[in-house]
Amino acid sequence: MIIIMRPDATEEQLEHLVDVVTQAGLQAHISRGAERTIVGCIGNDALAENIPFRAIPGVEDFVRILKPYKLAARESQPEKTRIMSRDVVIGGKEIVVVAGPCSVEPNSSIFETARAVKAAGAKMLRGGAFKPRTSPYDFQGLGEEGLRMMADAREETGLPIVTEVMDTRDVELVYRYADAFQIGTRNAQNFQLLREVGKYDKPVFLKRGMSQTIKELLMSAEYIMSQGNREVILVERGIRTFETATRNTLDIAAVAVLQRETHLPIFVDPSHAAGDFRYVIQLSLASVACGCDGLLVEVHPNPEKAMSDGAQTLRFEKFEKLIRDIRPVAEAVGRAV
Ligand code: PEP
Ligand code: MN
């Protein structure tokens, strides 16, 4: 249920409404827009059925939300969500490019990469310290040592850092080092993990599950948001289809659909979608044209030697070209890079 306040509603009237909603056993989520304040009632809808909303002073109207996601729905917040990570604004006019290696490796290449992507125009640094590998015999990441290296790379470049958390037991540890959590495609419906990051006050890059529908992705976001953390960034990273020419199929339509369905920022990860560095720039161009708020791109000084995902990883020169190429497209759709 969404309650729309009258433009002249007073703070006391708003407080009174929140009391009524809370006493009915629901949570009230206030969203203040430029013209109107709206209040979302979160919880079991049946509890709101008997409240005579129109009789409450200051209330103009109410709308039942039929969507199973509430906090993530556009109806609950018409304005786009803007998220700050240090000095970076996510979901604003500027398209935010997050770049870095798939894994943080036991050499100093994360520093070299951080410097290079920053010089090219990236605004945040990515790198995995806990790696969700398909084989238990593959490199699993450096764990806390990797987090420390990411934090050192932030020290040196000023780039906020994004890194994956795979296990509820590591959330506290990752929180201490990272500026933003990443939830990987394989954990997109790990509801315990979603709930856990929902208790923290740092942004979450939530990757779409490889076989998740858009609605299910939004329900995953809802899990995080229902715990209090409203800073969720949705990441389309390709889904599994019958096509084998690319590692996954970039669902570009999801970027369009999500803009209609949710106020949350929408990113695209062209690297995991393509699985092939030769398509990364083209998929980035399409994503920017379609209205994404940012890109998550894998970059390494020598992809041939990368410990994971080398085939889809860009060298520095190619990443510089990516930024150069997306600029005019961003401008054409009223954005900037
Ligand atoms: C990654 O970002 O390196 C990663 C493992 O991504 P995904 O979860 O989308 O496969
Ligand atoms: Mn990867």
How is this structure best described in words?
- This protein is of the alpha/beta class and 337 residues long.
- It folds into two domains: 2-64, 2-Layer Sandwich (Alpha-Beta Plaits); 83-332, Aldolase class I (TIM Barrel, Alpha-Beta Barrel).
- Helices cover 32% and strands 18% of the residues.
- The chain is built from ten helices and 14 strands.
- It has helices at 11-23, 109-120, 144-157, 171-177, 191-197, 214-225, 252-261, 270-274, 280-290, 316-332, and strands at residues 2-5, 27-32, 37-42, 59-63, 83-85, 88-90, 96-100, 124-126, 161-164, 180-183, 204-207, 232-236, 266-268, 294-298.
- The strands form three sheets. The protein has an eight-stranded parallel barrel with strand order 7-8-9-10-11-12-13-14, surrounded by seven helices. It has a four-stranded antiparallel sheet with strand order 2-3-1-4, covered by helices on one side. A two-stranded antiparallel sheet has the order 5-6.
- The longest helix is centred in the last third of the chain and has 17 residues, at 316-332.
- The model has no long low-confidence stretch (mean pLDDT 96).
- Phosphoenolpyruvate (PEP) binds at residues 102, 128, 132, 184-186, 207, 237, 269, 272.
